[in-house]
Amino acid sequence: DTEVTQTPKHLVMGMTNKKSLKCEQHMGHRAMYWYKQKAKKPPELMFVYSYEKLSINESVPSRFSPECPNSSLLNLHLHALQPEDSALYLCASSQLDSEQFFGPGTRLTVL
Amino acid sequence: RKEVEQDPGPFNVPEGATVAFNCTYSNSASQSFFWYRQDCRKEPKLLMSVYSSGNEDGRFTAQLNRASQYISLLIRDSKLSDSATYLCVVRPGNQFYFGTGTSLTVIP
User: Fold this and answer.
1) CA gyration radius, chain A
2) Peptide bond into A104 cis (omega under 30)
3) Where would you tag: which of A85, A87, B62, B67 has the fewest CB atoms within 10 A of its CB?
């Protein structure tokens, strides 16, 4: 199983809403990642979890809050987002010394 | 200085052509190198890892030059289905650094 799943596929939210993005992998990978991707740009790293501990936070605004409940799950909690936060949010996982596998992403629109 | 530099293109080539993409990286301690393919509005998918000795997978050949700190991807006999954005990725440690991506369109 080389699959990373993400839900929901699409999300539309207002600036006052609270929502969560979910990511799951069953490949036994010990590193999980959140990326944000705007059109015609490469993925931009937001957070890295290694062995369920937050190891990298790329100066992401506090309206984005990651959570790693266990080694297979990764969440991204969203609150008070801005329209410029609209993007494709990608989750990925990897072993500590090999390639990343990406989920299909959540396309987020903030109104 | 960017961790990874990549020519964004676009490359527009006829079917059957050979096309090459290059990336340079700045961190000489980088150990792992990859090429990903990304179709419009989809997630990046691993095309191939890049090994020191070079490696080939069908029409695709990847090369690594550690002395000059660049990696390359050669696509032979281009197909319409090769049209996509190709991202080079460099991994020093627990972080992945992406190039800007090179857009390829294969024209009938």
Assistant:
1) 13
2) no
3) B67
Beta-carbon separation of B94 and A31 below 8 A: yes
Question: Rounded distance, CA B71 to CA B50, Å?
Answer: 8
DSSP state letter for A83: G
- Of A110, A86, A91, A108, the closest CA to residue A6 belongs to A91
Would you tell me how many other CB atoms lie within 10 Å of the CB of residue B15? 12
For residue B72, the tally of other CB atoms under 10 A from its CB is 17
pLDDT, tens digit (0-9, with 9 covering 90-100), for B60-107: 999 999 999 999 999 999 999 999 999 999 998 878 999 999 999 999
- Give residue ranges of B with CB < 8 Å to any A CB: 31-32, 34, 41-46, 49, 87, 89, 94-96, 98-101
**Measured CA distances, A14 to A75, A81, B48 (Å):** 19, 8, 40
- A19-41 pLDDT, tens digit per residue, is 999 999 999 999 999 999 999 99
Distance CA A95, CA A32 (A): 9
Q: Which two tokens stand for residue A47?
A: 């957070």
Report d(CA A71, CA A26) in Å as an integer. Answer: 9
Using alpha carbons only, how large is chain B's radius of gyration in Å?
A: 13
Cβ burial, residue A99 (10 Å; 0-12/13-18/19+): middle
Q: How many residues does chain A have?
A: 111
